[in-house]
């Protein structure tokens, strides 16, 4: 196997394993990964609009709508009309949502710390720099560079 394929396979396998661990970790507090990510962004940006959340989570607005509705039904999220424009809403965590997020975040932080303690600070910095350089260009540009046209 050549270096490109080996590196790509390692990145892909690492991503898969981290995703699976995240899923199992969050399952312990009855959250899915998308639910946790939504709680994170609403916690970090109280009053965020669903459209901004869609951009941050890299998913279609209809998926956000379904996710928000379910989490609102579960008492984790509240939706309030934007006083400046009644056509839009702001999202915030309920007390229950904030407590659940903080519990999940504590476990998540412990997991991340444990995973990353295997690397020295210098190795972490080098890895960050190398991975960031891989993704300087949008994926659509990379695909177009090899002749694949993306239709939106």
How many angstroms separate the termini? 34 Å
CATH architecture grouping of one domain = Orthogonal Bundle
Number-wise, the strands total 2
CATH T-level topology of one domain: Arc Repressor Mutant, subunit A
Uncertain regions: pLDDT < 50 for 5+ in a row?
none
H and E order: HHHHEEHHH
Spatial order of the strands in the main sheet?
1-2
Q: Can you tell me the CATH class of one domain?
A: Mainly Alpha
Look at the helices and sheets and give the structural class.
mainly alpha
Total DSSP helices: 7
| Strand content bin | 5-15%
Q: Summarize the amount of helix as a percent range.
A: 55-70%
User: Considering the protein shown, what is the CATH homologous superfamily of one domain?
Assistant: Winged helix-like DNA-binding domain superfamily/Winged helix DNA-binding domain
Reconstruct the topology from this structure.
Blueprint: H1 3-27, H2 33-44, H3 50-57, H4 61-73, E1 77-82, E2 85-93, H5 95-116, H6 121-134, H7 139-145
Antiparallel strand pairs: 1-2
Describe the protein's architecture and organization.
- It is a single chain.
- This protein has helices spanning 3-27, 33-44, 50-57, 61-73, 95-116, 121-134, 139-145; strands spanning 77-82, 85-93.
- The protein is built from seven helices and two strands.
- It is globular and about 55 Å long.
- The longest helix has 25 residues, at 3-27.
- It has a two-stranded antiparallel ribbon.
- It has a domain at 30-118: Winged helix-like DNA-binding domain superfamily/Winged helix DNA-binding domain (Arc Repressor Mutant, subunit A, Orthogonal Bundle).
- It is 66% helix and 10% strand.
- The chain is mainly alpha-helical and 152 residues long.
């Amino acid at each position: 196997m050549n270096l490109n394929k080996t590196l790509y396979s390692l990145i892909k396998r690492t991503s898969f394993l981290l995703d699976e661990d995240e899923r199992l970790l969050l399952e312990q507090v009855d959250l899915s990964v998308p639910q946790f990510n939504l709680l994170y962004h609403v916690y970090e940006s109280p009053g965020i609009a669903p459209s901004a959340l869609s951009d941050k989570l890299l998913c279609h607005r209809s998926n956000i709508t379904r996710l928000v509705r379910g989490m609102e039904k579960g008492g984790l999220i509240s939706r309030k009309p934007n006083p400046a424009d009644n056509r839009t809403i702001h999202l915030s965590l309920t007390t229950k949502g904030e407590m659940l997020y903080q519990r999940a975040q504590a476990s998540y932080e412990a997991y991340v710390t444990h995973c990353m303690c295997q690397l020295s600070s210098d190795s972490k910095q080098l890895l960050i720099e190398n991975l960031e350089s891989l993704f300087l260009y949008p994926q659509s540009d990379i695909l177009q560079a090899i002749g694949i046209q993306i239709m939106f």
